[in-house]
Fold these 2 entries.
Entry 1:
Amino acid sequence: MNELYLLYVTAASLGFFHTLLGPDHYVPFIVLSKARNWSRSKTLWITFVSGLGHVSSSVVLGFIGIALGISVSKLESIEAFRGEIVGWLLFAFGLIYFFYGLFRHLKRRGHHHHFFNFLLPRRIRRMHHLSDSEDDVDKNEKSNVTFWMLFLIFVFGPCEVLIPMLIFPAAEHSSVGVATVAIIFGLATIVTMLGIVYLGYKGARFLNFKDKGEYVHIAAGLVIAFLGTSILFLGW
């Protein structure tokens, strides 16, 4: 029983530190909330749902692995593969968002060329028919593509440290222990994400881009693309 209590403390600690040390867990929400002018409640809600998907996918994978008797090494290799997918998804999403910001910048400056327009995704090209204000963009969008892209990326995002922690209570035939570890780790991860995003959101409010607001989208895309390359090549 003492081992389980120690495992619970470890789960909470790892949930906190693996989130804190992984900027991909919170930076996209902070930069996109600034670029898209999201409200605080919308920013935190998107963070919460994405974090829930992030943790739940690894929990489900762990439960399936335990039920089928899959070895820890195989589960960890699956998580590593999912990490590569997330890196590429973040890179692609950031690159697309960068071109979206560049497109808006050129259109506002009166340098909208057909050749550049051809390089953009169809959905971004349709933005030409919308107003330049972010509020009008949000009102005319039928679906929140930014939210769904973030959610999809975080669902693929692995929680490598969670899988080994689920194995010990499973080996002790403690279903309560397995569930408790998953819940504690998940709560620690999501609460940490919400806390850091909230602080980042509040801090970003002090940054005044009144004259340079059109560059915020470009910068957000570059930051997200950099996070993707960092995961792929630096092992973040």
Note: Residues 72-108 form the longest helix (37 residues).
Entry 2:
Amino acid sequence: MQTDVAKDQLRELILDGTYPSGARLTEMEVAAALEMSRTPVREALRALAADGLVRPSGRGVVVAALDRDHLDEAYQVRAALEALTAELAATRQSEGRIAPADLVALRDVANETAAVTAEGRFADAVRLNRRFHRLIAELAGNSMALLTLERIWDQIQVSTLRSLAPPSRPAHVSGQHEDLVSAIILGHADEAAKVARAHVLDTRTVTNSKGEPA
């Protein structure tokens, strides 16, 4: 469906900073950029407004960013939901409901994220970090949590993109990822939730001062 294609393409342009927070967009400009008619673009903009990525402004929209207080709230919700998805993933693993190949994939992404971060490939690290956390949410088997996290992750990414910098403690971040993977593989639900919550709250603290992702 053209509207879905327009939404996905425009969302990616927002998340990668092509259209940064504060950028004003019009149907005509976006339609030209995406080489589409204005109707699917109009519907895509409405959908992205519902997701909190843009807000109406005059005859167009503006790419929205969370202010400091709302960003802090977003991290609090993210911490709670990622603790839940980590707990659910570990529980499903203990019950034998997760395929070994999925656990291998999770560890591989964690290792790749650590490697590219250490190499200073920051853009790749941001992308892989998002993939790592999404994989855990997928392993949790809770579609509502995944959908809600996707929206929160998008809003946080847009709101912090301009201030992002390579993490000052890459070994600490990678260590938390490894601890989280291990807890899930071992089926330790309480530990997985604890590590996930602490990891996100650490991220919130660092982001407030430097904008680093994790």
Note: The mean pLDDT is 92.
